[in-house]
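=== Structure Prediction Worksheet ===
Name of assembly: unnamed complex
Input type: mixed (protein and possibly other molecules)
Chain count: two
Listed entries:
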Amino acid sequence: MSVIDLPALWRPENHQALFRLILDATARPGQGADLSPHLGGAHAALGALATFCDNTQTLADLTGTLTDADWRFLDVARAPADQAAFILAQGSDAPTFQPRLGTLDAPEGGATLIVKVASLTEGQPLILTGPGIKTTTSLHVTGLAPDWLTARARWCADFPMGCDMVLADDTSVAILPRTTKITEG
Amino acid sequence: MFPTDTMAQGHEGAEYGFAFLDEDAKRELRRSIFKAVCIPGHQVPYASREMPIARGFGTGGMQVTLALLGPRDCVKVIDQGADDSVNAANIRAFFSLTCPGVSGTTLTEAASVIQTRHRIPELPLRNDQILVFQVPYPDPLVLVEPNAATRRRMHGRADYARLWVKLYEDMVAFDEITISHRYPTRINGHYIIDPSPIPRYDVPKLHQADCLYLFGAGREKRIYAVPPHTDAIPITFADVPFTVEEFIDRKTGKRHCCRRCGATDSFLDEFPDEDGNRVFQCSDAAYCDSRLMQQEAAE
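=== Predicted Assembly ===
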């Protein structure tokens, strides 16, 4: 059997490790997960995409930061933001798109937004409540335009429809499932 | 004559990737698990793969576990609380065969991933543990609505009136709700799930737990989840409280205890012994064993 020396981010064992960290962060919204041991130097947002994307999925890159090599490794189809299953966006830019929210019968069709932010350890805290959070928890974010929170509140207003957000700084992610309620601290 | 290690038969030369499933299959499972956790209680469809055991023998739970496992995991598999029954023993052997590096255990506290059929362990699970259920029938509405598309619509709109009518009919006919296992449970105030055939005794453990619960139905091709610290309320009426098995001895009025370890705080199996007497024993074998070991150490 031949073994190809792939970059760390594209090896299956790292996808498994990334998934477990992301799953843990999804089950406990606001709790950051340090992905850096499994990224091989790549951005955490790319780590999240590598975990979930393949040739059955669609991706809209609104940041323009994905290289040709990234696209080839992801093997994911390009789609406009209003149709894509995954959307990679820049947190400093206010959202100007309408993501897929799923339907009442199939809410899992709601998009997964992967939003690049400057930091997940500094900045004004957001107060989070909802499933996965015992009482309340706080999430510190910088580099997320305030419009994101109003847009997200609008998208997630009609549970079970909505979209799920993965906030990513250089090395870590924090996840806001559609059930998480946010108030600014 | 059978070889001593039947699991090793024909393994030589079989080059499966880690965790048996191919990477695309695992990625699809992971996407479905992710959405299931994001939408607590919603049954997310997925492409249930062919497994080397028949559908209905725990393939859903197996696929979820295989999508989770990494070389540093420690896995425990139980069937009705026991580690050594046929279903659990063979699934554990399959994991050890196809997931090099993964260790197996019977200790609840040592496992990072626990796959289970029909029980939740007695020992409360921690926030670094995941419990994976093998689910035969994922949809509680199947009792009252035969059409799958209609059931999906009812779930989306949280239209569960007919389930309550079913409970009411039980009250009229029997003066109590007669559901002994697979008790319909409402997750986070919206979806009602079938929590797999766990006894009523285990249903309250779903509510505001520390660990993550994942449910995999292989034959019905559905994955759903109850995240930690999430409301899981068994549905009932305001004047009919939800009750769990009490194991009260009608003669003495006291609770039966386990005949091995003497526990009075565990779910008990009832069966006849060699002389035809009714006896009771812990259903959770690991819990019973650890109590016995503690008692021996104390003597």
